[in-house]
Write a sequence for this structure.
């Protein structure tokens, strides 16, 4: 059968033509492929033989990956001729071959598109085209990119765009958060983050937040907080319509933290930002995959989740909308652990159960979960915490079997879990079980453990405080060192400035000296010229003696002046050399000068000629020594150790002796004084002499001066001796380690002596080596022992010495080889024992501790610790299990230090069972491919393989598959289509085989379609577009991925649904869609179906009808708001819809009712969805409370203005006179004595009435219980007695009136039987039955009797009389010859007594003969021809299924039945199962196939005739 499809034009999407290379659009037949999401266009109307259009056997799958990764799309196509495959994208080009790599693998026939290093620019809709000359196939695929981190360039671009369009300045606040600069906080000032936290917190948390952030002005904080709330609400009003139900962030499960809030945005497209500690974080809009942060929206509820928690996730989280902070929450993940974990608890039904745990540090609260669902305190659960906040308990009240499960306690990043097993009480079936006393669980002395943890926590805090103090001291030392370095640098800068000043002074002195030398040379030249002139005059012939004497004197003066000039030149040269040496030495000294006193010392400066320390004359003179010695102490500073002075100017002796030992200069200490004395004597003599005498004296003075010059000797300065440039230093050294003492002297040839504790050390001293390297003297100790510790001294000539101490330490330590052996893991098998030995070195006493996984071990029945000097041993005497695997650590401590060593204990055992559930990869008609999870514990050895067995459901045998390689994956190809299979898996390692795990059933070859999505919700509607949204189905079809969605629309009043096609013409990928194919003013409804690999699933429930029109204006106020009824808890309202004013106020589509208690200022909305009618009943009011009420009309344009009641309303009904509301009230109640009597009566009255019960006009006794309610009353007699019989009256009375009603309660019991029964015949055919009255007749006025009769011809008793109030009954129609018996019963309202039976009564009669007349019999002929009572019916069966045909035929004799298909007999065909049972003829075809189609006929034949019946079988695919 050929189906012709109409021709349609290829409606290409926007940008598709360019992707196809600009080719003109071809007209063709467009139809869908069997592969969902693939559209095929056929270019020709009739396909040639053996030619096909392109199609996809495997279409690309959409990707959502992180940026920077490699994106790969794969596709497989078929077609004849072989199609060509091209790729295109909806937005943008794909011209870059390095970015978009299209490949083809001929081995697998796969076409791939690879996009390496994807970024947000590549996020787009991609199309894959397969073309040949007869048609094309196209499918679309989405590529979603998860951005990582804060994209600054994008935000900057948005900022520039906003600035260009002059957007609202508040939009820029979201850009300013990242660059927010923290100002220095003043005393008592509160951080901005703390204010954000307070604005989002509950009032009950204010005190805790203030305590954490040291806020003391609580009143001032509240006042400012109110102001900030008003400001924040004004800012939020720009973007948010409604905000409520703020729940702080908490750890909800073992690795997830969440916070949630209800928020209605004014603009659904408003941007939402999440910050952590002020830094924007990336998040996903779906809570799927492994995304770290996600924000899910369900209606108005927003849920933010942080997955895979770690310590770095703790911090302040903020949610901003449009740059305005909406919610702030602080996530705290303290480093807490469980000292005592919760243990498994077994409880009996209706018994309380309790879980307990102890933390390592105080925590005010922890999270408790049941099956990963958080638990809060309520009627079922009670969560408590001890005063020290270490012991936490969870109490499960009234345990039932449904309460069984895994309970978990979560503290910070740590968690522990345990089972609660509730054992059902099987003893009392069908009855309500009583609560059982006692609490299951507990039993551990948690107080002791908590006290130990408290002490440990206190010690840890003290240690942390000490560490903080130590760190503070180290920081201060570093700061002091930095200051010292700065001071040293300042000294160097000062020394450089002083050196520069000295150089300047030296240059000035040299200049002055040059000028003085030039002047002296000029004077000497003048003097020599005068002397030469005088000599020439004296040598002139005829010179007088005076001229000769003057010439000699001038010559002597010139010689003296020349000698003086030479001496001054030599002195100047020596002074320059000494100054240069002193300057060089001074630079070195200033670099090493750290002494503060050295800064205050001034250099000595001597003007004029220097006095020698030692001057020696030729003979007869005195030796005068003046020695300066340096300090011989250890502080050999540059001032003391290298002090020197240079005296190179003209030296004058302290004492001078001439040849005749008669000094002429003895009056003065210095030569200068002597010269003055000589000059004076000469002057005195010259006063009385002439010129010749004066000339002679001048000559003599010149000669004496020359003699004095010859007597002068260079001074000798005393050596200050050997000094210490650097002394010895104290040192600490471990036993056995080498050490060296070093000091530095100022001379290389200096010698010294070493001492230890005052005893001289020589070269022969054992264990020490003395050496000298230039000015360095060293004492080497190759191996230090305790005996070598002490005080050492080095002394040099002159008594100078330096001392230092060697402190010998002997901390605990291990030998390298022993430590290497110990560190090697110890591997044993389960059930064996283990021991650990380790020698150590160190000074006793020592403290030895052994640890297992951080927990200190102590000797007990399973652990022994042996400690000897230099040796320790740990022995596990018990049989070790797999759970004992862990870290073994030894810690040894003495006064010098601590040493630790770590090794591993590995206990080998069988692995645990593999983990389910199975992950089905493929479940087709030909194979079942699945994966499972590896065992939780491999037993210490790698899993080598798995042992698998298979069972076909319905059979009792298991088929063994042998060993499977170690991969947790298997593909079973030996399956039958439609069968279900179950598998058993066991893991194998070197130690053995694990326990088995039995998987769930897996069916082969059945398609699993997805379930229906949620009802589509209309987000917005316009003239040309209706925007829809929905949520995915909960059932995706056996875990398959949802490939997309199909949306259909239907006009109101029409029965036809039409599919809505997206622009690309393929499946809708998202969960939102805008339908543009609408007509303005028409009403539409929509439905959605999900599509997976099996195909399209069931459609969802249709949405509400929606108009295709622009948004409306809000409606006006409702009219005629009034109260129609009220009770103590309800209030009924009615109103009229507001008047519609076109363009100003549109028609109302619904209403909201809001109430506000008089003591509150906030309005509470009573209904979530808008009301469609003009009436509503407000429920759950507080009795006699005062409320304000208002009604708000709403439509698609929003909420209108509210209409308030003019006055407040009291929660009470209108006054009503009491009246009884029961339709049928019993006026009589009969109760058996000993039973309880309960009578209920209902009434109505307002206000609540007073109810009184009376018995026979008197108030009821205290033994009778009366229970009154607002609308009913109950009378209860616990154990009724006969004296409780009477008339009971109820009186209902209030301020409006009263009402009464009476009921008779009769207390009685089952009556006792009557006395003996007698029978007497008074009239023939009639007897009189009499009996004695029952004993209860006098006490029960309603007691009566019943009489039953039985004659000998009947076996049953018949009642002949009832309600007899006397003791006599007359029975008629008594037949002679029959025996009669009578029974009498006593009856009352409670029942009937046992019978009293009469004796037999018989009247003898005459017997007559009995004659029997037999009628004549006629023979009956049952023969009849065959006839079909039930014919065959038409059958249509699916291929591969069973088909059952049946019909009913009668006939006598029984006819022979034959089945025919297409006139061919089937009775001998074994493929058909034919049966004939009691005229019901049936045929069964086990597997229907195309060969079974045709006409079927049943023929029934006998000797009396023939009958036929036909039908037709149709087989469908």
């Amino acid at each position: 059968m050929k189906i012709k499809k109409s021709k349609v034009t290829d409606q290409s999407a926007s940008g598709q033509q360019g992707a196809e290379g600009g080719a003109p659009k071809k007209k063709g037949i467009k139809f869908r492929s069997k592969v969902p999401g693939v559209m095929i266009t056929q270019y020709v109307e009739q396909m040639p033989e053996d030619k096909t259009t392109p199609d996809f056997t495997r279409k690309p799958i959409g990707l959502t990956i992180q940026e920077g990764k490699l994106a790969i799309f794969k596709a497989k196509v078929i077609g004849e001729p072989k199609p060509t495959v091209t790729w295109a994208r909806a937005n943008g080009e794909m011209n870059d071959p390095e970015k978009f790599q299209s490949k083809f693998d001929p081995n697998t026939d796969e076409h791939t598109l690879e996009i390496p290093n994807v970024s947000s620019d590549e996020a787009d809709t991609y199309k894959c085209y397969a073309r040949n000359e007869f048609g094309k196939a196209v499918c679309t695929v989405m590529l979603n990119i998860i951005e990582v981190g804060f994209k600054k360039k994008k935000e900057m671009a948005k900022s520039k765009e906003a600035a260009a369009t002059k957007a609202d300045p508040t939009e820029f606040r979201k850009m300013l958060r990242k660059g927010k600069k923290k100002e220095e906080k003043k005393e008592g000032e509160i951080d901005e983050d703390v204010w954000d936290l307070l604005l989002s917190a509950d009032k009950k948390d204010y005190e805790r937040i203030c305590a954490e952030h040291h806020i003391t002005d609580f009143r001032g904080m509240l006042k400012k907080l109110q102001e900030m709330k008003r400001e924040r609400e004004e800012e939020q009003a720009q973007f948010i319509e409604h905000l409520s139900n703020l729940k702080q962030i908490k750890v909800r499960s073992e690795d997830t933290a969440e916070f949630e809030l209800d928020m209605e945005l004014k603009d659904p497209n408003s941007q939402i930002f999440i910050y952590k500690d002020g830094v924007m974080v990336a998040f996903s809009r779906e809570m799927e995959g492994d995304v770290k942060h996600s924000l899910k929206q369900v209606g108005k509820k927003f849920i933010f989740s942080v997955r895979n928690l770690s310590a770095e996730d703790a911090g302040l989280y903020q949610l901003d909308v449009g740059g305005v902070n909406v919610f702030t929450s602080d996530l705290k993940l303290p480093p807490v652990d469980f000292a005592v974990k919760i243990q498994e608890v077994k409880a009996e039904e209706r018994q309380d159960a309790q879980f307990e745990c102890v933390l390592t540090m105080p925590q005010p609260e922890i999270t408790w979960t049941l099956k990963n669902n958080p638990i809060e305190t309520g009627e079922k659960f009670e969560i408590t915490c001890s005063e020290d906040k270490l012991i936490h308990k969870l109490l499960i009240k009234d345990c039932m079997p449904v309460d069984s499960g895994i309970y978990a306690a979560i503290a910070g990043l740590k968690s522990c879990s345990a089972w609660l097993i509730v054992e059902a009480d099987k003893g009392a079936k069908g009855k309500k079980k009583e609560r059982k006393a006692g609490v299951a669980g507990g039993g551990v002395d948690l107080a002791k453990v908590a006290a130990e943890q408290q002490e440990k926590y206190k010690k840890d805090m003290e240690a942390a405080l000490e560490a903080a103090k130590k760190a503070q001291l180290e920081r201060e030392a570093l700061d002091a060192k930095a200051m010292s370095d700065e001071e040293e640098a300042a000294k160097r800068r000062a020394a450089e400035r002083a050196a520069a000043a000295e150089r300047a002074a030296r240059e000035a002195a040299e200049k002055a000296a040059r000028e003085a030398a030039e002047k002296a040379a000029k004077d000497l030249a003048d003097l020599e010229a005068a002397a030469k002139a005088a000599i020439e005059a004296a040598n002139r012939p005829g010179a007088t003696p005076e001229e000769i004497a003057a010439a000699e004197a001038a010559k002597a003066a010139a010689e003296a002046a020349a000698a003086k000039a030479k001496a001054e030149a030599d002195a100047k040269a020596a002074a320059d050399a000494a100054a240069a040496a002193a300057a060089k030495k001074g630079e070195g000294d200033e670099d090493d000068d750290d002494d503060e006193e050295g800064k205050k010392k001034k250099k000595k400066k001597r003007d004029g000629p220097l006095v020698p320390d030692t001057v020696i004359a030729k003979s007869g003179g005195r030796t005068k020594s003046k020695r300066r010695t340096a300090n011989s102490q250890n502080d050999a500073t540059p001032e003391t150790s290298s002090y020197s002075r240079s005296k190179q100017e003209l030296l004058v002796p302290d004492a001078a002796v001439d040849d005749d030992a008669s000094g002429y200069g003895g009056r003065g200490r210095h030569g200068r004084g002597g010269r003055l004395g000589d000059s004076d004597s000469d002057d005195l003599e010259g006063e009385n002499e002439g010129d010749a005498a004066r000339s002679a004296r001048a000559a003599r003075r010149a000669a004496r001066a020359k003699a004095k010059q010859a007597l002068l000797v260079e001074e000798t300065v005393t050596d200050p001796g050997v000094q210490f440039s650097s002394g010895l230093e104290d040192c600490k050294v471990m036993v056995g380690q080498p050490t060296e003492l070093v000091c530095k002297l100022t001379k290389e040839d200096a010698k010294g002596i070493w001492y230890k504790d005052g005893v001289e050390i020589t070269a022969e001293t054992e264990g020490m080596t003395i050496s000298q390297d230039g000015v360095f003297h060293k004492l080497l100790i190759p191996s230090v022992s305790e005996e070598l510790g002490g005080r050492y001294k080095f002394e040099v000539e002159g008594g100078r010495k330096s001392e230092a101490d060697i402190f010998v330490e002997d901390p605990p330590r291990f030998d390298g080889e022993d430590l290497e052996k110990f560190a090697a893991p110890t591997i044993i098998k389960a059930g064996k024992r283990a021991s650990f030995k380790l020698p150590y070195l160190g000074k006793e006493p020592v403290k030895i501790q052994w640890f297992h996984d951080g927990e200190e071990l102590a000797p007990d029945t399973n652990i022994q610790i042996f400690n000897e000097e230099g040796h320790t041993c740990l022995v596990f005497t018990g049989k070790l299990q797999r759970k004992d695997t862990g870290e073994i650590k030894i810690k040894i401590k003495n006064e010098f230090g601590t040493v630790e060593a770590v090794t591993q204990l590995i206990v080998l055992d069988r692995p645990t069972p593999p983990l389910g559930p199975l992950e089905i990869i493929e479940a087709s008609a030909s194979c079942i491919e699945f994966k499972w999870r590896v065992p939780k514990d491999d037993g210490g050895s790698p899993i080598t393989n798995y042992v698998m067995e298979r069972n076909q459901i319905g059979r009792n045998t298991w088929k063994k598959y042998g060993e499977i390689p170690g991969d947790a994956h298997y593909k079973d190809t030996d399956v039958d289509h439609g069968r279900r299979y179950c598998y058993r898996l066991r893991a194998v390692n070197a130690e053995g085989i694990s326990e088995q795990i039995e998987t769930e059933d897996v069916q082969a070859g059945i398609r699993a379609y997805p379930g229906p999505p949620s009802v589509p919700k209309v987000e917005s509607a316009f003239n040309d577009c209706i925007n829809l949204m929905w949520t995915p189905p909960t059932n995706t079809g056996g875990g398959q991925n949802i490939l997309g969605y199909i949306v259909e629309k239907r006009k109101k009043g029409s029965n036809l649904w039409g599919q809505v096609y997206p622009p690309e013409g393929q499946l809708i990928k998202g969960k939102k869609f805008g339908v543009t194919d609408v007509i303005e003013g028409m009403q539409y409804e929509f439905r959605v179906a999900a599509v997976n690999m099996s195909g399209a699933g069931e459609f969802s429930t249709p949405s509400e009808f929606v108009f295709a029109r622009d948004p409306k204006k809000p409606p006006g106020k409702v009219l005629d708001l009034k109260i129609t009824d009220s009770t103590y808890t309800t209030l009924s309202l009615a109103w009229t819809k507001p008047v519609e004013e076109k363009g100003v106020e549109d028609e109302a589509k619904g209403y909201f009712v809001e109430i506000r208690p008089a003591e509150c200022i906030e309005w509470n909305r009573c209904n979530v969805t808008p009301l469609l009618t003009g009436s509503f009943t407000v429920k759950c009011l507080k009795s006699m409370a005062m409320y304000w009420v208002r009604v708000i009309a709403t439509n698609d344009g929003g909420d209108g203005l509210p209409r308030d009641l003019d006055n407040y309303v009291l929660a009470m009904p209108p006054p009503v006179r009491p009246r009884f509301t029961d339709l049928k009230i019993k006026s009589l109640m009969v109760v058996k004595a000993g039973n309880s009597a309960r009578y209920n009566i209902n009434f109505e009255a307002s206000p609540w009435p007073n109810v009184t019960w009376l018995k026979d006009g008197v108030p009821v006794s205290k033994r009778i219980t009366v229970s009154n309610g607002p609308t009913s009353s109950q009378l209860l007699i616990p154990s009724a007695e006969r004296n409780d019989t009477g008339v009971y009256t109820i009186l209902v009375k209030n301020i409006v009136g009263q009402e009464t009603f009476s009921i008779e309660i009769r207390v009685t019991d089952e009556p006792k039987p009557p006395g003996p029964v007698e029978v007497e015949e008074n009239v023939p055919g009639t007897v009189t039955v009499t009996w004695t009255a029952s004993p209860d007749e006098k006490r029960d006025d309603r007691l009566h009797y019943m009489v039953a009769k039985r004659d000998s011809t009947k076996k049953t008793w018949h009642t002949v009389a009832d309600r007899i109030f006397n003791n006599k009954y007359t029975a008629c129609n008594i037949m002679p010859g029959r025996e009669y018996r009578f029974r009498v019963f006593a009856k009352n309202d409670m029942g009937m007594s046992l019978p009293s039976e009469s004796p037999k009564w018989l009247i003898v009669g005459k017997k007559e003969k009995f004659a029997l007349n037999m009628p004549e019999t006629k023979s009956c002929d049952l023969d009849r021809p065959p006839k079909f009572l039930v014919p065959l019916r038409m059958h249509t069966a699916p291929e591969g299924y069973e088909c059952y045909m049946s019909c009913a035929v009668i006939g006598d004799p029984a006819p022979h039945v034959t089945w025919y298909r297409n006139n061919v007999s089937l009775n001998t065909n074994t493929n058909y199962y034919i049966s004939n049972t009691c005229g019901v003829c049936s045929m069964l075809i086990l597997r229907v196939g195309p060969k079974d189609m045709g006409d079927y006929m049943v023929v029934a034949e006998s000797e009396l005739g023939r009958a036929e019946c036909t039908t037709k079988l149709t087989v469908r695919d």
Remarks:
- The first strand starts at residue 8 and ends at 9.
- The chain has a mean pLDDT of 79.
- The chain has 13 helices and 98 strands.
